[in-house]
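Intended use. Records like the one below are meant for learning the mapping from a protein sequence to its folded structure. Do not use them to infer anything beyond what is encoded.
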Amino acid sequence: MTDTIVRTLSAPDAAAAAGAAAAAVAATSREDRARWLEAVADALDAAAEDLVPIATAESRLAEARLTGEVARTTGQLRLFAGVLRDAGYLEVIIDHAVPDATPPQPDLRRMLVPTGPVAVYSASNFPFAFSVAGGDTASALAAGNPVVVKAHSGHPELSRRTAAVVAEALAGAGAPEGTFGLIEGTQAGRDLIQHPAITSGAFTGSLHGGRALFDLASGRPTPIPFYAELGSINPVVVTAQAVQQNGEGLASGLVGSFTLGAGQLCTKPGVVLVPAEAGFEELVAEAMGEVTAAPLLNSRIVEGFGQGIGSLAEHPAVELVAGSRSAADAEAPAPLVLVTSAAEVVADPEALLAECFGPVTLLIRYASLADLESALAAVEGSLTGTIHAAESEDVSALTALLAPRVGRLLFGGWPTGVAVTWSQHHGGPWPATTSVHTSVGATAIRRFLRPLTFQDAPESVLPDELKESNPLGVPRRVDGKLEV
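Structure written out for the chain above:
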């Protein structure tokens, strides 16, 4: 790994450098940018043995978990190299002129183009995959935009070291100066999103922090989009037949999912609607016997978890199923399972359906379909929703209830674990995110592009993708017909 530690810039300097580089970055070829991303991926793989111990020391996460996360991070970078070479993301559309149409139709040629410099805000719970060289950085660079990353305070040394690897790899691959920069500090993060050179922002973190930045982005003299992944409780519905068919397996799966990463995953199943009198609570309590406590990422999360448990576990409508409330403010708190009823959720959704980031889940008993419907109606937007039913059950009604509230709907399985693929969607209705876009998967690139249509343009000014001869061989829709 390079011994260089990247120089952390002020927000104005970093944004200005990105702004100065924007035209040059946008003008680069897709193949050049694909090579940039692959160079960064190769450099991170080569530096993993040096980076992982730094991440372990700063994040309290296990070495094996972090080693796997480096692989996920470099896999994301290589995925976007493939997206660039595929070129379908450009959405090239050509409609030739039809002068005798009513009204007359001009020659129209449309494609997606880079938006300009992007502000990326690192997450605490994924020091690699949602941080300095994570998916937001990869997709923004792939789109043809300079990136300024605001480092997370939970892993400052790792952020600087990773940024040095990224900066050196980009420079070695020929990226223009100003393509990538790093800033640190809360105020610097606020200043960055308000700088006129920044055209959009991407964030993964708390509802409070993300909303504050979203408001700053929206309140600028020239408002800009802010793509934030925020709070999510990820409702799960378990039917009585599912419990009867595989109760022990479901209980074990739930415990494994909500305690994974000490419950510090945005896809953690935070609320689970379970049939009353089906014995599922007892099965979950039994499955909890093999779970051990794991440390939370940092003191801020420890404090937040203690406060969240204090509000939730002490609610008069909530009972303890398994675990202990007494150590909620410990560095490594014991996992908790709580239970309430659908009627109580409907009566006080603000308290009972609040996200609690850490190893806790809330079971919600329902006695009828009406109970279930009323409880789900109180659930706000989430990243995921899950249905566990017997193979013979008709789940169309549950699908109709959950689909409007989530970005990814699972039939069986558990939501923790997000595959990085072309079809993945990691987003959801407010307050899960501030937009309809994904932050994971190939279509994450769409956040940092905008449509541009050329009307009756001379061939000399058209991008190669829009020229009649299609010299780059990109997929296009011409006069309504797809050509690949």
